[in-house]
Amino acid sequence: MNEIQILKYNGGEGGRSKYVDIGTFEGQKVVIQRLRPILRSTDQHVRLVKFLKNLLMSDQFDHPSLVKVLGYCFRHTKGEAGYEHTPYFGDVSVVYEYGGMGLDLNALNRTIAERLNHAAEIASLLSYLHYSPLGSLADFDIKPEHFKMLNGKIKLIDLDHMNNVEPTCSLTLSTSHKNFKPCPFNISCQELTEIEMRYTKCQTVKCDLGVCRGTNVKYNLQKMNIFFQVLLKPKFFPDALQYSLSRLLTQLNKTDIGVDGLEKEIRNITLAYTNLKT
User: Domain holding 44: CATH number?
Assistant: First the structure.
Protein backbone atom coordinates (compact mmCIF):
# COMPACT_ATOMS: atom_id res chain seq x y z
CA MET A 1 0.00 0.00 0.00
CA ASN A 2 2.86 2.38 0.79
CA GLU A 3 4.19 1.94 -2.75
CA ILE A 4 1.04 3.37 -4.33
CA GLN A 5 1.50 6.94 -5.51
CA ILE A 6 -1.74 8.82 -4.88
CA LEU A 7 -2.65 11.12 -7.75
CA LYS A 8 -5.91 12.42 -6.32
CA TYR A 9 -7.52 12.00 -2.91
CA ASN A 10 -11.26 11.39 -2.97
CA GLY A 11 -11.17 11.84 -6.71
CA GLY A 12 -13.43 8.97 -7.76
CA GLU A 13 -17.10 8.09 -7.71
CA GLY A 14 -17.65 6.92 -4.15
CA GLY A 15 -20.97 8.57 -3.49
CA ARG A 16 -21.88 9.16 0.14
CA SER A 17 -20.53 5.85 1.43
CA LYS A 18 -16.90 5.68 0.29
CA TYR A 19 -13.79 7.73 -0.27
CA VAL A 20 -12.27 6.82 -3.62
CA ASP A 21 -8.63 7.76 -4.21
CA ILE A 22 -6.87 7.43 -7.56
CA GLY A 23 -3.23 6.41 -7.78
CA THR A 24 -0.61 4.44 -9.66
CA PHE A 25 1.21 1.23 -8.77
CA GLU A 26 4.05 -0.12 -10.94
CA GLY A 27 2.87 2.07 -13.80
CA GLN A 28 -0.74 0.89 -13.56
CA LYS A 29 -3.56 3.23 -12.60
CA VAL A 30 -5.50 1.95 -9.58
CA VAL A 31 -8.45 2.89 -7.36
CA ILE A 32 -8.28 2.83 -3.55
CA GLN A 33 -11.60 2.62 -1.71
CA ARG A 34 -12.14 3.52 1.96
CA LEU A 35 -15.32 3.90 3.98
CA ARG A 36 -16.59 7.42 4.42
CA PRO A 37 -17.34 8.00 8.15
CA ILE A 38 -20.84 8.89 9.33
CA LEU A 39 -22.18 9.88 12.74
CA ARG A 40 -24.54 6.96 13.44
CA SER A 41 -22.50 3.96 14.58
CA THR A 42 -25.22 1.42 13.71
CA ASP A 43 -25.31 2.54 10.08
CA GLN A 44 -21.51 2.56 10.02
CA HIS A 45 -21.45 -1.09 11.09
CA VAL A 46 -23.85 -2.10 8.31
CA ARG A 47 -21.79 -0.17 5.77
CA LEU A 48 -18.59 -1.84 6.96
CA VAL A 49 -20.19 -5.26 6.54
CA LYS A 50 -21.22 -4.40 2.97
CA PHE A 51 -17.79 -2.94 2.24
CA LEU A 52 -16.10 -6.14 3.40
CA LYS A 53 -18.65 -8.29 1.57
CA ASN A 54 -17.82 -6.48 -1.66
CA LEU A 55 -14.12 -7.08 -0.99
CA LEU A 56 -14.53 -10.79 -0.26
CA MET A 57 -16.79 -11.49 -3.23
CA SER A 58 -14.63 -9.48 -5.62
CA ASP A 59 -11.54 -11.28 -4.35
CA GLN A 60 -13.05 -14.78 -4.66
CA PHE A 61 -14.87 -14.43 -7.99
CA ASP A 62 -12.97 -14.79 -11.24
CA HIS A 63 -14.65 -13.54 -14.39
CA PRO A 64 -13.33 -11.07 -16.99
CA SER A 65 -16.47 -8.92 -16.60
CA LEU A 66 -15.93 -8.43 -12.86
CA VAL A 67 -13.51 -5.77 -11.65
CA LYS A 68 -10.34 -7.25 -10.16
CA VAL A 69 -9.13 -6.75 -6.59
CA LEU A 70 -5.40 -6.03 -6.66
CA GLY A 71 -4.90 -5.97 -2.89
CA TYR A 72 -6.15 -4.74 0.46
CA CYS A 73 -4.76 -3.60 3.79
CA PHE A 74 -6.08 -3.39 7.35
CA ARG A 75 -5.02 -0.94 10.07
CA HIS A 76 -2.53 0.97 8.00
CA THR A 77 -3.78 4.51 7.38
CA LYS A 78 -2.95 6.30 10.62
CA GLY A 79 -0.10 8.69 10.14
CA GLU A 80 0.14 8.27 6.38
CA ALA A 81 0.45 11.35 4.23
CA GLY A 82 -2.98 12.62 3.25
CA TYR A 83 -4.77 10.67 5.97
CA GLU A 84 -3.54 12.44 9.11
CA HIS A 85 -6.71 14.47 9.63
CA THR A 86 -9.20 12.03 8.14
CA PRO A 87 -11.61 10.45 10.64
CA TYR A 88 -11.84 6.86 9.49
CA PHE A 89 -13.80 3.90 10.79
CA GLY A 90 -12.63 0.39 10.05
CA ASP A 91 -9.16 1.26 8.77
CA VAL A 92 -9.35 -0.97 5.71
CA SER A 93 -8.46 0.02 2.17
CA VAL A 94 -9.09 -2.00 -0.98
CA VAL A 95 -7.21 -1.54 -4.24
CA TYR A 96 -9.07 -2.21 -7.49
CA GLU A 97 -8.09 -1.91 -11.12
CA TYR A 98 -8.96 1.52 -12.47
CA GLY A 99 -12.01 1.87 -14.67
CA GLY A 100 -12.50 5.59 -15.13
CA MET A 101 -15.91 7.17 -14.77
CA GLY A 102 -19.25 5.36 -14.75
CA LEU A 103 -20.52 3.74 -17.92
CA ASP A 104 -22.75 5.89 -20.15
CA LEU A 105 -24.94 3.57 -22.22
CA ASN A 106 -25.88 6.35 -24.62
CA ALA A 107 -22.21 6.88 -25.43
CA LEU A 108 -21.61 3.28 -26.51
CA ASN A 109 -20.79 4.12 -30.13
CA ARG A 110 -19.32 0.77 -31.07
CA THR A 111 -18.71 -1.26 -34.19
CA ILE A 112 -20.98 -4.23 -34.86
CA ALA A 113 -18.23 -6.64 -33.81
CA GLU A 114 -17.71 -4.73 -30.54
CA ARG A 115 -21.44 -4.69 -29.83
CA LEU A 116 -21.68 -8.45 -30.29
CA ASN A 117 -18.57 -9.00 -28.19
CA HIS A 118 -19.88 -6.86 -25.32
CA ALA A 119 -23.24 -8.65 -25.45
CA ALA A 120 -21.49 -12.04 -25.36
CA GLU A 121 -19.39 -10.98 -22.36
CA ILE A 122 -22.42 -9.77 -20.41
CA ALA A 123 -24.28 -12.99 -21.23
CA SER A 124 -21.24 -14.92 -19.99
CA LEU A 125 -21.31 -12.94 -16.73
CA LEU A 126 -25.01 -13.76 -16.25
CA SER A 127 -24.20 -17.44 -16.77
CA TYR A 128 -21.30 -17.23 -14.30
CA LEU A 129 -23.56 -15.74 -11.61
CA HIS A 130 -26.27 -18.33 -12.25
CA TYR A 131 -23.93 -21.33 -12.05
CA SER A 132 -21.67 -20.00 -9.28
CA PRO A 133 -20.42 -22.35 -6.52
CA LEU A 134 -22.56 -20.33 -4.10
CA GLY A 135 -25.69 -21.14 -6.04
CA SER A 136 -27.63 -18.88 -8.38
CA LEU A 137 -26.74 -15.30 -7.40
CA ALA A 138 -28.88 -12.22 -7.88
CA ASP A 139 -27.45 -8.72 -7.85
CA PHE A 140 -30.20 -6.57 -6.35
CA ASP A 141 -28.42 -3.32 -7.16
CA ILE A 142 -27.78 -3.64 -10.89
CA LYS A 143 -27.60 -0.25 -12.58
CA PRO A 144 -25.36 1.31 -15.24
CA GLU A 145 -23.46 3.36 -12.62
CA HIS A 146 -22.07 0.12 -11.19
CA PHE A 147 -20.33 -0.74 -14.45
CA LYS A 148 -17.10 0.64 -15.88
CA MET A 149 -15.48 0.44 -19.29
CA LEU A 150 -12.03 -0.98 -18.56
CA ASN A 151 -9.56 -1.89 -21.29
CA GLY A 152 -12.37 -2.33 -23.76
CA LYS A 153 -14.51 -4.49 -21.45
CA ILE A 154 -17.70 -3.63 -19.58
CA LYS A 155 -17.07 -4.62 -15.95
CA LEU A 156 -19.29 -4.83 -12.87
CA ILE A 157 -17.69 -3.10 -9.89
CA ASP A 158 -20.20 -3.40 -7.03
CA LEU A 159 -21.10 -6.81 -5.56
CA ASP A 160 -22.27 -5.96 -2.04
CA HIS A 161 -25.97 -6.48 -2.82
CA MET A 162 -25.57 -9.99 -4.20
CA ASN A 163 -27.13 -13.01 -2.52
CA ASN A 164 -28.22 -16.54 -3.35
CA VAL A 165 -31.58 -16.50 -1.54
CA GLU A 166 -34.67 -17.02 -3.69
CA PRO A 167 -38.25 -16.29 -2.56
CA THR A 168 -40.16 -18.94 -0.65
CA CYS A 169 -43.65 -20.04 -1.65
CA SER A 170 -46.45 -22.45 -0.78
CA LEU A 171 -46.58 -25.78 -2.61
CA THR A 172 -50.33 -26.11 -2.08
CA LEU A 173 -51.59 -22.57 -2.65
CA SER A 174 -51.60 -20.90 -6.05
CA THR A 175 -52.70 -17.49 -4.76
CA SER A 176 -51.05 -15.21 -2.24
CA HIS A 177 -51.96 -15.27 1.43
CA LYS A 178 -50.53 -13.77 4.60
CA ASN A 179 -47.29 -15.78 4.49
CA PHE A 180 -46.53 -16.25 0.81
CA LYS A 181 -46.85 -14.44 -2.48
CA PRO A 182 -46.99 -16.07 -5.91
CA CYS A 183 -43.59 -16.65 -7.48
CA PRO A 184 -42.45 -13.82 -9.77
CA PHE A 185 -41.91 -14.28 -13.52
CA ASN A 186 -44.66 -16.96 -13.58
CA ILE A 187 -42.24 -19.44 -11.99
CA SER A 188 -43.82 -22.50 -10.40
CA CYS A 189 -43.23 -23.26 -6.72
CA GLN A 190 -40.76 -26.12 -6.34
CA GLU A 191 -40.02 -28.48 -3.48
CA LEU A 192 -37.02 -27.84 -1.26
CA THR A 193 -33.92 -29.98 -1.68
CA GLU A 194 -32.64 -32.07 1.24
CA ILE A 195 -29.99 -29.46 1.99
CA GLU A 196 -32.54 -26.63 1.91
CA MET A 197 -34.81 -28.61 4.25
CA ARG A 198 -32.07 -28.73 6.89
CA TYR A 199 -32.03 -24.95 7.13
CA THR A 200 -35.77 -24.34 7.39
CA LYS A 201 -38.21 -24.55 10.29
CA CYS A 202 -40.50 -26.82 8.32
CA GLN A 203 -41.13 -29.72 10.70
CA THR A 204 -44.28 -31.27 9.21
CA VAL A 205 -44.28 -34.72 7.59
CA LYS A 206 -45.15 -33.15 4.24
CA CYS A 207 -43.58 -29.74 4.13
CA ASP A 208 -45.70 -27.08 2.44
CA LEU A 209 -42.77 -24.71 2.05
CA GLY A 210 -41.29 -24.39 -1.42
CA VAL A 211 -38.90 -22.13 -3.29
CA CYS A 212 -39.33 -19.99 -6.40
CA ARG A 213 -36.30 -21.58 -8.02
CA GLY A 214 -35.03 -19.63 -10.99
CA THR A 215 -36.03 -16.20 -9.71
CA ASN A 216 -32.47 -14.93 -9.31
CA VAL A 217 -31.38 -15.59 -12.88
CA LYS A 218 -34.63 -14.09 -14.20
CA TYR A 219 -34.09 -11.00 -12.06
CA ASN A 220 -30.55 -10.53 -13.41
CA LEU A 221 -31.75 -11.00 -16.99
CA GLN A 222 -34.48 -8.42 -16.44
CA LYS A 223 -32.10 -5.84 -14.96
CA MET A 224 -29.30 -6.43 -17.48
CA ASN A 225 -31.73 -6.24 -20.38
CA ILE A 226 -31.01 -2.52 -20.69
CA PHE A 227 -27.50 -3.36 -21.95
CA PHE A 228 -28.76 -5.81 -24.57
CA GLN A 229 -31.42 -3.36 -25.78
CA VAL A 230 -28.69 -0.78 -26.46
CA LEU A 231 -25.94 -3.08 -27.75
CA LEU A 232 -28.14 -5.24 -29.97
CA LYS A 233 -30.46 -2.56 -31.35
CA PRO A 234 -31.39 -3.93 -34.79
CA LYS A 235 -30.94 -0.62 -36.66
CA PHE A 236 -27.16 -0.86 -36.15
CA PHE A 237 -26.97 -4.26 -37.86
CA PRO A 238 -27.34 -5.56 -41.42
CA ASP A 239 -30.88 -6.28 -42.60
CA ALA A 240 -30.19 -10.03 -42.63
CA LEU A 241 -29.69 -10.01 -38.83
CA GLN A 242 -32.48 -7.69 -37.77
CA TYR A 243 -35.21 -10.32 -37.45
CA SER A 244 -33.07 -12.54 -35.19
CA LEU A 245 -32.09 -9.55 -33.07
CA SER A 246 -35.68 -8.30 -32.73
CA ARG A 247 -36.83 -11.77 -31.70
CA LEU A 248 -34.05 -12.05 -29.10
CA LEU A 249 -34.79 -8.60 -27.65
CA THR A 250 -38.48 -9.48 -27.39
CA GLN A 251 -37.59 -12.66 -25.49
CA LEU A 252 -35.42 -10.60 -23.14
CA ASN A 253 -38.18 -8.06 -22.58
CA LYS A 254 -40.47 -10.90 -21.52
CA THR A 255 -37.68 -12.70 -19.58
CA ASP A 256 -38.65 -15.61 -21.79
CA ILE A 257 -35.11 -16.90 -22.30
CA GLY A 258 -32.49 -18.43 -20.00
CA VAL A 259 -28.77 -17.73 -19.84
CA ASP A 260 -27.91 -20.83 -21.87
CA GLY A 261 -30.33 -19.84 -24.62
CA LEU A 262 -29.09 -16.25 -24.53
CA GLU A 263 -25.46 -17.27 -25.00
CA LYS A 264 -26.43 -19.61 -27.84
CA GLU A 265 -28.46 -16.94 -29.65
CA ILE A 266 -25.64 -14.39 -29.42
CA ARG A 267 -23.15 -16.98 -30.73
CA ASN A 268 -25.46 -17.76 -33.66
CA ILE A 269 -25.93 -14.08 -34.52
CA THR A 270 -22.18 -13.50 -34.28
CA LEU A 271 -21.52 -16.45 -36.60
CA ALA A 272 -24.13 -15.17 -39.06
CA TYR A 273 -22.49 -11.74 -39.04
CA THR A 274 -19.06 -13.28 -39.64
CA ASN A 275 -20.43 -15.24 -42.60
CA LEU A 276 -21.96 -12.08 -44.06
CA LYS A 277 -18.55 -10.42 -44.14
CA THR A 278 -16.86 -13.31 -45.98
Answer: 3.30.200.20
18-47 pLDDT tens trace: 788 899 998 889 989 887 766 555 667 788
Do the Cβ atoms of 180 and 173 come closer than 8 Å?
yes
Q: What domain range includes position 11?
A: 5-97
Is 221 within 8 Å of 126 (Cβ atoms)? yes
Say how many residues make up the chain: 278
Rg (CA), the chain: 22
Q: Domain holding 136: CATH number?
A: 1.10.510.10
pTM (two decimals): 0.85
SS3 31: strand
Q: In a 3-state reduction of DSSP, which class is residue 96?
A: strand
pLDDT per position as a tens digit, 155-202: 998 898 999 999 999 888 755 556 788 899 999 999 988 888 887 777
Residue 70 shares a structural domain with residue 112: no
The rounded distance, in Å, linking the Cα atoms of 55 and 99 is 16
What is the C-alpha separation between 215 and 184, in angstroms, rounded? 7
Instruction: Confirm whether 183 is domain-assigned.
Output: no
75 and 137 inside one domain: no
Cα 212 from Cα 97, distance rounded (Å) = 36
Signed CA dihedral, 77, 80, 86, 87: sign only: positive
